[in-house]
Design goal:
The protein has ten helices and eight strands. The protein is α/β, with parallel strands linked by helices. The strands form two sheets. Strands 3, 4, 5, 6, 7 and 8 form a six-stranded mixed sheet that branches. A two-stranded parallel ribbon has the order 1-2. Strand 3 and strand 4 form a beta hairpin. The mean pLDDT is 92.
């Protein structure tokens, strides 16, 4: 999470593009080279994504191509939304070591609810960087139709895997498990 300013300066970049965690270093980085922040607004994910893509595309004169790709993405979103069952509810979880965190609408993983239109099993999950700490009892109590799993363990090299954490009698009783609707997302 630290930035090696000397190494960046030695590269003599024409442009530095940062997001999220690097935002606190914006002022120091802009002393090295023009710096563009492309963070996402989770409450307005799609519009902030679109603005970021267009900002970068403009730097390279690729606005037309960017608009085409954005249009393709919006078409895919509409296709996905058209198959969403409005009566079903989902829980988005992140596993890290043996811990489970839940994320709801307008969170960093809220795109599933906010953009794709899949209802949240619990609208009261507060927005926070690290989500709401939960356990298998919470998952069973909420009994989601779908569980979307982001396994952070894969990225950070932990041996524990989400499947092992969720492979228990409580989660097995959920509608998601019984209907094989536990969906493991690519964590990258």
């Amino acid at each position: 999470q630290q930035v090696d300013f000397e190494a960046i300066n030695a590269l003599k970049p024409d442009l530095i593009i940062i997001s999220g965690r690097q935002s606190k270093f914006y002022d120091k980085l802009k002393e090295i080279a023009p710096t563009l922040f492309v963070g996402l607004d989770n409450a307005n994910f799609l519009s902030s994504f679109e603005n970021n893509v267009l900002s970068v595309a403009k730097l390279y004169g690729l606005e037309k191509e960017a608009l085409e790709k954005i249009s393709d993405i919006k078409n895919e979103i509409e296709k996905a939304k058209s198959i969403v069952d409005e009566d079903k509810k989902a829980l988005i979880i992140l596993t890290n070591s043996n811990k489970i965190s839940a994320f709801g609408p307008q969170s960093r993983f809220g795109i599933i609810h906010d953009v794709l239109g899949i209802n949240a099993v619990d609208e009261n999950i507060k927005v926070g960087t690290h989500g709401k700490s939960i356990n298998s009892e919470f998952i069973l109590e909420k009994n989601p139709d779908y569980i979307f799993v982001i396994d952070r363990n894969i990225i950070v090299g932990n041996k524990e895997r989400a499947q092992g954490i969720l492979d228990n009698a409580l989660v097995a009783k959920t509608k998601a498990a019984q209907n094989k609707k536990i969906i493991y997302l690519d964590p990258e």
